[in-house]
User: Fold this.
Amino acid sequence: MRVSAPKCIIPIALALPIALGTSPAQADPSVYGGQGKTRYAALGDSFASGVGAGDYIPASGDCFRSPRAYGPLWAAAHHPKTFQFIACSGATTTDVQKDQVPEISPATTLLTLTVGGNDLGFSQGVAACVLPTSTDATCNAALDESEYILQHELPGNLQRTYQDIAAAAPKARVVLAGYPHLLEAGTSACPYGTPARRIRINALTDQLDSLIRKTGKEQGFRFADVRRSFAGHGVCAPAGVPQWINAIVSPSFASFHPTAVGQRCGYLPPVSAVIGVSSGSSLVNGTPCRSVPRSGFAQAPHRTGV
Assistant:
């Protein structure tokens, strides 16, 4: 039987509206068109649109597309012939199928996608686990619901989404960018949930990334694993280590999303590696992205491809 989240989760989730409802995901006009041969489209949810990175494109409305997201950063560095920025905050797999896939040009030769988290109600699950008013029972109920959807509903949703993309862009090299661990579990002084809750949230991310990789491989798509590049830089990183994930911030929808540095240093390098070219500039205020010491941090295996 399906486990349903209790109604008491609803006000907690509303107190931290991490994901927003989507607007029609019409592509923003490219400002990065160049003389290259690549025709690139960037699809997905808020992690692909750049929520949390700021500097949102006014015309993108509630999609909150940022030029600091990994898709526009790649386009700015490599000057594809065309660039369609279609990702939209709050998008589920159904939204990608309905609103984003129809925008893809059949001439597309490169496509990136991050989607799946909103299908699980992942943002509500995080809110139910990390807010000061949350309890173990509330957290576990929310994550139980997410795990049920991941096991019984999301596999089919991802498969249909990938099939639609393959049909709409048959010439495209498709790179599926996964999700990072949002929270550091190894730090004791952290106001966001207990260590056990943070561990379980990260474990759910691992399950989601594994499903995206497996389902994408069946379609012939490649997977970019961003967990290693983000390792140590999540919320509640140790003192002196920069956080590449926003904690609870204003506006609240940017909470628990990558910062601009997270997009540039956490997402862009592994995505570029799977595409097969360099990430271009990986400087932040003139300083190179640097790896932090890994001692004490749990790491996911470093895999960039399928």
